[in-house]
Specification:
2 copies of one chain form a homodimer. Chain A is an alpha+beta fold. Chain A has one domain: Pnp Oxidase, Chain A (Roll). In chain A, 23% of the residues lie in helices and 37% in strands. Chain A is built from 7 helices and 11 strands. In chain A, strand 3 and strand 4 form a beta hairpin. At the A-B interface, strand 2, strand 3, strand 5, strand 6 and helix 3 of A face strand 2, strand 3, strand 5, strand 6 and helix 3 of B. Strand 10 of chain A pairs antiparallel with strand 10 of chain B, so a sheet runs across the interface. Chains A, B: It comes from Halosaccharopolyspora lacisalsi. Chains A, B: InterPro entries: Pyridox_Oxase-rel (IPR024747), Split_barrel_FMN-bd (IPR012349). Chains A, B: This is Flavin-nucleotide-binding protein. Chains A, B: Pfam families: Pyridox_ox_2.
Chain lengths: 216, 216
């Protein structure tokens, strides 16, 4: 399955030339994004909150405390929307009107279910931990019974998803190109990991492990 | 006015110690974030889309094409939620359970109004352009009448806003600290602008202007 299967609400209406149809694009955006923005309807108004997540196959796992209002209410099989955006650069054009951004965006619609089966919950928590901090699941202490009970995990199917990607330079009008008055191009935006900062309560000389030191 | 004025939905329920109450925090998050995630209810389900924006005083201006479904429907004085998240680093703790992220998050609730007054629309478009590409408004060609008509701008008051900020190291359990088995600390995440990439249709030797070259 490499084709996205858009429904009405997951069909890209604007900028169809930017709509992706390949499931590998969807997966790579979800795997590269560190957090998602989760939208839900609460008491009659939309709420959008940054949320930790991970993808396993065709399922997005969303993480939260069982006490969190967003998760409690999201658990009730209500419609949600998860959005992951990677901003790749700013597009400078000869006109203010054609300024734009290069980005890769994934939007998923659906009704999440709460993950209660112990094995699936364990694998989902492992995936969310590894998504946030690759290598940590094996290095750190894994959850005990109390911690498992205090963690809620939602599963959202990737069945109804859309991808939008913009790449390349500006789309200037011919007259503006001919005028030659202004610079045009792309200023790329990069993300990078900095120097690890050991916790003050860590023993002196505790080495920074490879999975932290070498994170790309 | 430096205090946020939380209502029920803009009060931070989880992690109150992370709730910001200072309006300068709100402003700095909005000014540093490049895009927001705009949530709205469409045909009975939430939709969250990455959106260009800018702050002027206590108003958030949201940008879109007049043909965009999200803007058309958002224009109807419906409730929306705009979320801006700056991810500052990953918090590695001794237990998988206490892994976390350092971030600054602003969430704004309200009913946006469409900006129709010419002077306000002009200033809003200027602000959105300058937010995306500082220096571009004066350098590039400014919008003509047709372009102005083809652009929709929404104004969202910052009256109902919440800020959540997490900084610092992990909050590990005493037993895990005593065990001394795992590394703990923060891996910072940085954003940086890369080398400007001139458009292929730019005249040879056209200099990269200072506002692009020196962007921080």
């Amino acid at each position: 399955m490499t084709e996205l299967s858009p429904t009405g609400r997951s069909t890209v209406h604007r900028g169809k030339k930017r709509a992706g149809t390949d499931r590998t694009d969807l997966h790579s955006i979800l795997d590269e994004g560190v957090i998602c923005h989760l939208g839900m309807q609460v008491d009659g108004s939309p709420r959008v909150l940054p949320t930790a997540f991970a993808r396993l196959g065709e399922t997005l796992y969303l993480h939260g405390s069982t006490g969190a209002r967003s998760l409690r209410e999201g658990i009730e099989e209500a419609e949600v929307c998860a959005s992951v955006t990677l901003l790749d650069g700013i597009v400078y054009s000869r006109s203010a009107f054609h300024h734009s951004a290069n980005y890769r965006s994934a939007v998923i619609h659906g009704r999440p279910r709460e993950v209660s089966a112990p094995e699936e919950k364990w694998q989902a928590l492992r995936a969310v931990t590894e998504h946030l901090a690759p290598g940590s699941w094996e290095h750190a202490r894994q959850p005990d019974r109390r911690e498992l009970a205090a963690t809620a995990v939602l599963a959202l199917s990737l069945d109804e998803a859309s991808v939008k990607i913009r790449t390349g330079g500006p789309g200037d009008d011919e007259e503006d190109i001919a005028a030659g008055d202004a610079w045009a191009g792309v200023l790329p935006l990069h993300s990078s990991w900095g120097e690890p900062e050991p916790s003050p309560d860590l023993a002196d000389g505790f080495p920074v492990p490879e999975h932290v030191r070498a994170r790309q």
